[in-house]
Structures are given as C-alpha cells and as structure tokens.
Amino acid sequence: HVRLVESGGGLVQAGGSLRLSCTASGSTFSINTMGWYRQAPGKQRELVAGMTMSSGGNTRYADSVKGRFTISRDNAQNTMYLQMNSLKPEDTAVYYCNAHRNSGWVDYWGQGTQVTVSS
Question: Each residue of 21-61: pLDDT tens digit?
C-alpha cells in the first residue's frame, strides 16, 4: 500500500507562483513512475507532469505548462514537487499526485489540492 498526501495549493494572482508537494509513505519501493494530474470542472483529468523513478530517468510535461512548470523529487524525503510559475487563470483546477506501479498496473492517488488563479 502507498499513501500520497498533497499540499501547497491556494489562491494566487495571475503571473504568480505556487509550489505543490506530495509526500509518499508505505511501499514506496514498488513505485515506477510519479506525476501530477489536474482536473477542472466539466473537463477530463489530464497529465500535467510526470517522471520515472529510475536513475537517469525521464520527465514529461503537457504542452500547456512546458516552460512554466517544473517537476522534481527528493528521494531521501520521499517527496515530489511541482513548481508552478507564471500561473494563468486556465491553470485553475484540483491537482492530484499520482504514483504508478508497472507490475499489476496499479495506480495510487492523493486527495487533491485546489489551485485557483485569479485574473
């Protein structure tokens, strides 16, 4: 079992910045990839940024956030971050932390944290 807890969401003015955190506990050794998803009202959940857990791993970003958002992690603290700069009103959504295990095709999700960007 893997537990994910997000924090760092809030209300920010357009052009501002936020830093989201996701702390993992439990069987974290089983995780192959982690990432951030978001879902706005009336829209489908989408991948914002993802990363592999292997050494020399790979990162990926949605085109809409590339150049503005940065995904990173601290292995010693089992924590993943999403640095969000130059925020836009269209970034407003609930952001979810995700962890994926390839064996058995298992996904774990955090509770979500609200990000609201005012114009």
Answer: 999 999 988 899 999 999 999 999 999 999 998 876 799 99
DSSP strands (E only) in 75-110: 79-84, 93-101, 106-109
The alpha carbon of residue 45 and the mean position of all alpha carbons in its chain are separated, in whole angstroms, by: 12
Q: Are 71 and 82 in contact, with CB atoms under 8 Å apart?
A: yes
Helix, strand, coil percent values for the chain (each to nearest 5): 10, 55, 35
SS3 71: strand
- Identity at 13, one-letter amino acid code: Q
Angle formed at CA 36 by CA 31 and CA 38, multiple of 5 degrees: 140
Quick check: helix, strand or coil at residue 30? helix
Residue 76 φ/ψ, nearest 5 degrees: -65, -30
User: pLDDT value at position 54?
Assistant: 82
